[in-house]
Design goal:
Helix content: 25-40%
CATH topology: Rossmann fold
Structural class: alpha/beta
Low-confidence stretches: 3-21
CATH architecture: 3-Layer(aba) Sandwich
Number of domains: 1
Distance between the termini: 79 Å
Shape: elongated
CATH class: Alpha Beta
Strand content: 35-45%
Number of helices: 3
Largest sheet: 9 strands, mixed
Order of helices and strands: HEEEEEHEEEEH
CATH superfamily: ABC-type transport auxiliary lipoprotein component
Length: 197
């Protein structure tokens, strides 16, 4: 094979790899809690952008085959990076609860009564169970509630939930994320509504 032919083959191989690597991934989102009918409260709340570790601060769907490994599902991503996705879900779920007059994001020009600080501790799929081949999904958030008037700490609490995907297929894993996230949102909204007095 001539040098030019070899170069042509190598270029074709590189283009093929690049094409696969740059192929768009399907995007997935999760659902907030539904709206509760009835009058809303009078208080305002801001949910600041959550903090998260580097492995979670991305729009890729994290899977941890072992506690020391971080990989990503190859065929899907979230519509937003995880911190922004979690913020969107919390804002919508808290607004839908009817306890607050207005729930917004940091920097939205809102003068709130309360501020919620959020840390995303866990938001990942884990190694499939060897016996059942089901894939566990773990969602964990820590919420800290402040009185905005004097930045007084009102309370802090961690919320965790696990979902179980029937397989490691992307749609199945996303459905398990949705179930686990819904449980965390339910518990977090209940706690915030009880604590913000």
């Amino acid at each position: 094979m001539t040098r030019i032919s070899l170069l042509f083959v190598l270029l074709l191989s590189a283009c093929s790899v690049f094409s696969k690597a740059s192929a768009p991934l399907d995007a997935y989102t999760l659902q907030p809690l539904p709206a509760v009918q009835g009058p809303s409260g009078a208080r305002h709340l801001v949910v600041e952008l959550p903090t998260a570790s580097g492995a979670l601060a991305t729009d890729r769907i994290l899977i941890k085959p072992t506690p020391l490994q971080a990989q990503y599902l190859p065929k899907g991503r979230w519509v937003d990076p995880v911190p922004e996705l979690v913020q969107t879900l919390l804002v919508a779920s808290l607004q839908n609860s009817g306890v607050f007059r207005l729930v917004g994001r940091d920097g939205a020009g809102l003068t709130p009564d309360f501020v919620a600080l959020v840390e995303v501790n866990d938001f990942q799929a884990e190694a499939p169970d060897a016996a059942t081949h089901q894939t566990p999904v773990h969602v964990g958030l820590t919420l800290t509630l402040l009185n905005e008037t004097d930045r007084h700490l009102i309370g802090s609490h961690r919320f965790d939930a696990t979902g179980m995907a029937a397989s490691a297929a992307t749609l199945s894993v996303v459905a398990a994320f949705d179930a686990a996230t819904r449980q965390v949102l339910t518990d977090a909204v209940t706690w915030v509504n009880r604590t913000a007095r």
